[in-house]
Amino acid sequence: MQVYDLIQKTVRQKKLMKSEMQFLITNFTNNKIPDYMMSAWLMAVRCQGLSPEETADMTLAMRDSGEILDFSEIPGATVDKHSTGGIGDKTTLMIAPIVAACGGYVPKMSGRGLGFTGGTIDKLESIPGFSVNLSRQDFYRQIQKIGCAVIAQSGNLTPADKKIYALRNLTATVDSIPLISASIMSKKLALNADCILLDVKCGNGAFMKTRESALALAESMKSTAIAHGKKCSAVITDMNAPLGMAVGNALEVREAISILRCEIHNPLAELVIDLSGQMLALSGMGDLQECRCKALKALKSGKALTKFAEMIAAQGGDASVTDHPEKLPHSRASRMLFSDKSGYLASVHSEEIGLACLELGAGRTSANSQIDPGAGVVFLHQIGDEIQDGDVLCEIHADSDVLCEQAEKRICSAIQITEMPVPELQLIDCVI
Ligand code: URA
Fold first, then answer.
1. Residue nearest to atom 3 of ligand 1 (CA)
2. Given this model, what pLDDT does residue 366 score?
3. Domain pair 79-322 / 331-418, same fold
4. Which one of the listed residues 65, 110, 183, 223 is annotated catalytic?
5. What is the enclosing helix (H) or strand (E) of 337?
6. Which of 112, 180, 181 most suits a substitution to test ligand 1, by most atoms within 8 Å of the C-beta?
7. Do the beta carbons of residue 28 and residue 164 sit within 8 Å?
8. Phi, psi angles (nearest 5°) of residue 317
9. What is the pLDDT of residue 364?
10. pLDDT recorded at residue 105
């Protein structure tokens, strides 16, 4: 088999056979295919696409390049969730304990933030003592005992994806639906939960900027999951405004705790209940309506909060933050941003807020940069709220007054207040 011929086939939109896809992925991972040939093939895919069968075959070859987890000892269906990422997305912090409090099993491997999007792992690490590195045995044991564990990606999971992703980053081939789908789904299939809920974000703060591309990615990932025997649903959710009120690691943990304590009920809380209900339904715990009610009950009864405290304690963290969120890290400086007019909060540009938070120190500009866990922005109003001239729009947190001042202009221009009333945000667009 010649790599040259495989590149030609993809350029001419002729389908690669399963064995050809396996050959390409395995030999590239084992350094037997040079980067320049793989780059040419990736660019051919970027321009010509792959069929659903080819995408599923590529995903499987990538999954099989490394370790595959085994939850067969867990006495029920395991359910994973994947969000394609956005600004202020802290849903895992609430969904994992809610689903576990209802009797589900949630094994979760999450990533760190890079660029303007935050990572669940950085959020959890802002909890004093919390360890995101569990051995496989401890990971399995915790899921069996508590029902949920959230850890960083570790071990020899999908080495093919690591190598291909690094090359895509250098060759302008990240932006391809079949390649994104294979990259994400290879990791999901290697984690190997029985059920997968896909939360595909759509909007200016997301990978997928248009509804059309979000739907195409969701369809591609779902068909791959189904082709490999997983139960799967996909939800398209809005990412034109930050999710919830807080953006920044410890600030987002604090917001998640407030929702778990039922101190606030906002569109984010609604989304969390809906997504938890979807996960419970996939796990076979009833129909969607029943499962949504179960999720709501776990939240209202405080069981989900207790479960979150159990998970924190099991992973070495200070579980008392659930009663005393003031123990979470704070930045040294803060500043309030005031509205200079009356009207209605019409939009908050999430990508701009993500970039402002990066400047404040809440995110990483490179894989090794340090983050300030207390940095970020907390909004005091939601989309649709009436605003009076002089109201505080948000609080800005960073290590110094200078950083707060510098970010203020960017944050200010990301917020739009209009004279006309605007409807409240609908976070869920559709379920596939
Ligand atoms: N996230 C991934 O894991 N892979 C991609 O290709 C894009 C986003």
1. 184
2. 79
3. no
4. 183
5. strand 333-338
6. 180
7. yes
8. -90, 170
9. 87
10. 98
Among all chains, which residue has been given the structure tokens 């051995």? Answer: 135
**pLDDT value of residue 394:** 98
Confidence at residue 292, expressed as pLDDT on a 0 to 100 scale: 98
Closest-CA residue to 307 (of 74, 71, 93, 81): 93
Distance 15 CA to ligand 1 centre (A): 23
63 is catalytic: no
- CATH numeric code, 331-418: 3.90.1170.30
Architecture of domain 3-63 in this structure:
Up-down Bundle (1.20)
**Model confidence, pTM:** 0.94
The domain 79-322 is placed in CATH, from the list 3.40.50.20, 3.40.50.920, 3.40.1030.10, 3.10.310.10, at 3.40.1030.10
Helix (H/G/I), strand (E/B), else coil: 335: strand
Nearest atom, ligand 1, residue 174 CA: 6
User: The tokens of 358 are what?
Assistant: 């990066």
pLDDT for 323:
98
pLDDT at 367: 75
**Domain limits, the chain:** 3-63, 79-322, 331-418
Instruction: Tell me the mean pLDDT per 10 residues along the chain, length 432.
Output: 96 98 98 98 98 97 97 96 94 98 97 79 97 96 98 92 93 94 97 98 92 97 96 97 97 98 94 98 97 98 98 98 98 98 97 95 85 97 96 98 97 97 91 92
